Amino acid sequence: MTRPATPIDTADFYELEGLLSPDEREFLHRVREFMTSEVAPVVNQHWQRGTFPFEVVPGFRQLGLAGLPYRGFGCRGGSYLLDGMVAMELARTDPSIATFSGVHGGLAMGSIYLCGSEEQKKRYLPEMARLEKIGSFGLTEPDVGSGASRGLTTTARRDGDTWILNGQKKWIGNATFGDLTIIWARDVADDQVKGFIVANDTPGFSTAKLEDKIALRIVQNALITLDNVRVDEADRLQNANSFRDTAEVLRMTRAGVAWMSVGCARGAYDNALKYAVEREQFGRPIGGFQLVQDLLVRMLGNITSSWALCARLSQLQDEGRAEDRHSSLAKAWSTVRMRETVGYARELLGGNGILLEHNVGRFVADAAAIYSYEGTREMNTLIVGRAITGLSAFV
Asked: What is the mean pLDDT of residues 49-63?
């Protein structure tokens, strides 16, 4: 049997990186090189231990990834298309690192960028863009996930020029070591959801790390308890006056999670392809067997279709025309295809697929979390269903 001289070693089968400008591609490739040389060698160890690789943060700082699509306030001012492909590139090496970046640069910085006053943006965003302050996003609660729009139990009560916050938040990434958290709470006076910038060292603010996770183990998720936490009116997000404003942030970051799911699938595919051309059985590489090629092509098709969907979504964001329905379809579709793809990769590796050293099992586990956060498939399906029928199926 004759081996191909140069097997394709990238999932960019339709050359979608060509949608970026030359400068953007150069930046994306610098991110790829950093992830390959500095992050990839340490992620399995940290994933196994459930620890965060603080040693790579200075490299992120030098790259200037935080708040990439925002304009002004020390941010790069790049396109949403570039931001999405960067999120994909991070997840391609490790979805936990992509989540760290998405929580800080997307959810936390995005809340201030979209809902903060000019003064708040000037005060917080430059330091966050330089990763001198790390942010978290506190929306989900122990008993409230998908029902956050109507069911938040964390309360905010105004007392003169301060607000008093009480309640709990759960699954809050970065909160165990971060500097500030965006807390979303229900104003007891008007029953509307409002946002607050809370320093993590504020009296009454405490965190407890969530242990024994089976996915995204590098992400430091916390249970936050707010016990009569006082926040100045100056740190209330001045343009967040209802859950509609919260939803603006989620619309943007949901697109980022769709991109992460493509990256997760791509990481599993990359490693499965490498394994297929190197692993020999019956005197030949298993990549030369028909059933193995079938698995690889299924994976590639899933990645390519999801990547193209996300690319168009980012173009709509750059044009200012993206709506909830667009982000929801991309997130719902891409995460389903991601779970299928990592499963195929695990299947291709056989028993070796469950060993960290082969860099597929980690993606299989992490895909379970990406599938659920930023809106489950079911919730996003109902958003799209409402858009195409004009009828709401929400209860």
From this structure: 96
